[in-house]
Design brief:
Elements: E1 3-6, E2 9-13, E3 30-37, H1 44-56, E4 58-61, E5 69-72, E6 76-79, E7 83-92, E8 128-136, H2 146-149, E9 163-175, E10 195-211, H3 218-224, E11 228-229, E12 247-252, E13 259-260, E14 266-276, E15 283-285, E16 291-293, E17 308-309
Parallel strand pairs: 11-17
Antiparallel strand pairs: 1-2, 2-3, 3-8, 4-5, 6-7, 7-8, 9-10, 10-14, 12-14, 13-14, 15-16
Length: 320
Amino acid sequence: MPTTTYNGVEFEVSSEPMPTRVIDQKLQTVQAKLMFELNTSTAYETAMLEVEQAILGWTRIDPSFSNRLNRNYPLTVPLQDQGSMDALRMAAMPADRVGLANSSNPPTPDELPVVNNAGYNWWPTSPRIHYMTEFGPLPYSRFMTDAEAYAGGSPPRELGRFIKVYEQAVPREFRRPDYGFVTEGTDDAVLQVGFIPFIQSEVIYTWYQVPYPDAVPWNTIESTYLKVNNAEFDGDELVVGYQQGTLLFTKSGPLDNWYYGPGGRRYVDVVYYFTRNLNGWNRYLRADGTLVNLVRKNVPGNVPPYASADFTQLFNPGAG
């Protein structure tokens, strides 16, 4: 069987055919059986850690730059009609038989599913392990080179590999007494509270696979609640970001909802919730269409209703 070396780990893909591909038009997934021949001098747990890291990829804080995450890409399956898909998860099939070379004992029914029918010996002399691996489109953007990944300003576009942004418009009527109504032609006042159509947006950022707890910026998150962005956020030379003062950080998802990732490391998907106001949270739209800045009444120093913060630090694993 042909072997492949990926991220330093050698493996084979069983042929049924090679690889086994089941395409679901809705989910767009691919499945393949991967077979590894383990080094008997290496502890089983260590070998499996290396295998899972190599196939699924892994994340860690850069040892030289604490404000950056190092990524190891997952294995990809190329498809002519859909580009490529990345390894999302691996399900270990029952472990292959060990020490049964030249055995006269026939396999039992529960052993049959793990037998590789690709043409090699039914009873290998070295330990082997089989995985059923599922491939699919990642839930986040993926850059192909480091030069592309680190291009741009805030936040570092490298984080785009593991960030998904979701925006939902929230139409509403904004009650405003100064936007009252009169009858046309007579200017007779109407006893109805004035309102204007107003569209806010809920903006959700999900930062996937953040090493827990070391890379979660705990203190930064707590100090940024109910603040607005102090500069344009998530923009670069190619993309216009959210304008200064238009995003309000309202809440975060459960930060302790960690899970075990590739190789047994703990990760958490950090979710940030923002509300977008196109006029700006510290500005007021007058009836004549002009915008004015707001400050707190009876508070010296021209203090705005909402303080501001650097939102890029929410995605800085070294921010603390």
